[in-house]
Amino acid sequence: MTNRPATKPSPPIRRAAGLFAGLALGLAVLAGCSSQGATPDCGLDACTVTFERGVEASATILGVEAKLIGAEGDQVTIEVAGEQLTLTTGQQATEAGGFAVTLDSVTDQQVKIRVSRNPGN
After folding, report:
1. Cβ contact 80:66 at 8 Å
2. Distances, alpha carbon 3 to alpha carbons 6, 9, 106, in Å
3. How far apart are CA 38 and CA 46, in angstroms?
C-alpha cells in the first residue's frame, strides 16, 4: 500500500489571482471595441452605438466596423461589416454580415443603432 500525501487546497491568494485573471479576460472581451465620434455600449451578443453627427464617426464592435455615412430626416445610411445600409426609424432589423442592424433613434446631434449577432450565425 502506497501512502500519498494529501493534496492541499490552493492558497487563497492563488485562487484570488485566478479569479482576477478570469474577470480581466471577460472584461477585455466585452470592452473589445474602439470608437471615434461614437459611443458603443456592448454585451456579449449585441451593441448599441451612439454616433455623433457632423463628424467622421465609427466604432469597432463585435469584431466588425460600424460607420455612420450620412443622415437625413429619419433615414440613416451606415456601413456595418463592409455592407452599406439605409435604415429608417421603426424599420425591422436589416441583415449585414451575419448581424441584425436596427436604427433606434435620430436627433440633430446623434444617431443610435443596435447591432446584434444573428442567432443562426
Report:
1. yes
2. 9, 18, 73
3. 16
| Rounded distance between C-alpha atoms, residue 87 and residue 78, angstroms | 8
Determine the Cα–Cα distance for residues 118 and 111; give it in Å rounded to an integer: 22
Tell me, what amino acid is at 61?
Answer: I
The dihedral over CA atoms of 74, 54, 109, 67, expressed in degrees to the nearest 10, equals: 60
Asked whether the CA dihedral 92, 89, 96, 59 is positive or negative, the reply is negative
Q: What is the pLDDT along the chain (121 residues), one digit of tens a residue?
A: 556 555 555 555 555 445 444 433 343 344 456 678 899 999 888 999 999 998 889 999 999 999 999 999 889 999 999 999 999 998 999 999 999 999 999 999 999 999 999 866 5
What pTM value is reported for the model? 0.70
Cα gap 21→18, rounded to integer Å: 5
